[in-house]
Structure formats: structure tokens, C-alpha cells
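User: GxxExxY protein, Lacipirellula parvula:
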Amino acid sequence: MVHSELTERIIRCAYEVHNTLGTGFLESVYERSLLIELRHAGLRAQQQAPLDVFYRDEVVGQFFADIIVEDKIVVELKACERLAKAHEVQLVNYLVATGLPVGLLMNFGAESVEVRRKVRDLPATSC
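Assistant: Predicted structure for GxxExxY protein:
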């Protein structure tokens, strides 16, 4: 599995944040707390990383990923009652825009942290 050890470390950090804070905070509180926890775990993480969206090799927009860990994993955070399909689509779009193969969608709004791992299909390479 792509970057499985790294994603497991990130998920452990998310559980630590949730166990400490519980539910009921805004997404921004969980984002800043997870950033602290990731750094405490020795991981390099960038908050609100700007990402350009291209169409025919031209920039047509920009969005911000909640957290990018070790320049390998996009982490998209939510603090809602339950995750929707639109949240997963958003994460997949971030993977396409960044070219990164793996993303984690994390919801801190439920009784426990809800995590969905998405892997972008990479094009086959010829030998």
C-alpha cells in the first residue's frame, strides 16, 4: 500500500488530537491542533498549502489544502456530523491537482475520528 506507514502515523496523531479535544470545535481548531501533533511526532507538515489548478497548461484557479505532510500526503479535515461523497470528491481533486498519490479525509465531528484514505490511480508506465 502506498505510504501506508506514513498514513498510519498521521492517523495516530489525529486520534491523539480527538482524544484530547473531543468533539464540538471548529475545523480550524482541529487543523491547528493536528499540525502541532504532527510536528511533535517529527513529521514535516504544511498548513493551508496553496495549490494551482490548471486547464490546458494555464492556471485557472487556486485552492488551499488543509495540510500536506512530508510533501507526500494531502490531509483534508472536516468537523461535521458525517462525511459526504462531495468531501471525498474534493480530496480526489486535490490529489489530481497536486499529483500526490495518497490523501486522507478526516472528520473530527463524530464521536470518534472518521478517516477515509484515497489513492489516486497512477498512469501505467511502460518498460
